[in-house]
Amino acid sequence: MRDGVTRFLLRGASVRGEIVTLDRAWREVVARHALPEPVRDRLGELSAAAALLGATLKFEGSLVLQIHGDGPVALFVVEYRSDGGYRATAKLREGAVIAEDAPLPALVDAQGRGRFVVTLDPRETAPDKPAWQGIVPFESETVAGVLERYMQRSEQIPTRLWLAADGERAVGLLLQRLPDEGGQPEADTDGWNRMQKLADTVVREELLTLPPDELLRRLFWQESLHAFDERACRFACRCTRDKVGDMLRMLGSDEVEAILAERGEIEVRCEYCNQAYRFDVVDSVALFHPAAPAADGAPTRH
């Protein structure tokens, strides 16, 4: 199946929806992180949720979803960009012991300190505009429940999500009730409740195995459904050697030289894609003295 988000309307019921499949993009994430199965699957569900919400961004930039707390998993984080690029990671605490059937609260909310954070960041193309961040307490047993409560609190839009993930695929279905329009007495007043009941019949296996168009047809075959063009998603990490170099400059030459004296080189590994960037003494000189000319006869590094 292709990686993409499809938006659709259930016209008679005044309900909009989206369905997402992350196939190759999700396997790229799985291949880069050796995560326990419960952590992997929750990260996949959060990835699908980010794609569903990110597909409606009205600016050029990124949506970041985070779940963090005091459990064995310190952080789940997913970034989805307006161009369809996506990346995700999870950070485990050192020595974390995770049961095979651990639910989401056991992973991040052991002592009730879990938080869900949404960040909307337009600064990539509009550096003068600040990022917006919303933080809500952790109040659900599932990733879908966390998102539904957030949407109800912040957007005040009735929203339902159905999410699933395994080692091969991350998928999601979203329904939202459209605002009532005046002057339309023929509108289906029970449409929202009926669409929820239909979607509630879906099972995890169907989400993970059926193509999006077939799944929608099975769920809403009696409804007036109009699907829009699919929007492609892909795994795309934004890390670069130049960005890592900028980070090392922020540490300062004294700190970098001290690390080099102890280890011989500095290795920085991207937490999203696991790409390693290595810097030695020659690289350090180039970082902090980029305009320094090489001495006559001295070797140069290319």
Helix count equals: 10
Strand content: 25-35%
CATH-scheme architecture of the largest domain: 3-Layer(bab) Sandwich
CATH topology of the largest domain: Hsp33 domain
Helix content: 25-40%
Unreliable residue stretches: none
Please identify the top-level CATH class of the largest domain: Alpha Beta
Distance between the termini: 42 Å
Number of domains: 2
Rg, alpha carbons: 23 Å
Mean of pLDDT: 89
Please give the number of β-strands: 14
CATH-defined superfamily of the largest domain: Hsp33 domain
* Helix-strand sequence: EEHHEEEHEEHEEHHHEEEHHEEH
> Based on CA inertia axes, which overall geometry fits?
elongated
Helix/strand class: alpha+beta
Main sheet characteristics: 6 strands, antiparallel
Describe the SSE topology.
Elements: E1 4-10, E2 15-22, H1 24-32, H2 37-54, E3 62-68, E4 73-81, E5 85-92, H3 104-108, E6 115-121, E7 132-137, H4 143-155, E8 159-165, E9 170-177, H5 191-199, H6 204-209, H7 212-219, E10 225-227, E11 231-232, E12 234-235, H8 241-251, H9 253-263, E13 266-269, E14 276-279, H10 281-288
Parallel strand pairs: 5-12
Antiparallel strand pairs: 1-2, 1-10, 1-11, 2-9, 3-4, 3-6, 4-5, 6-7, 8-9, 13-14
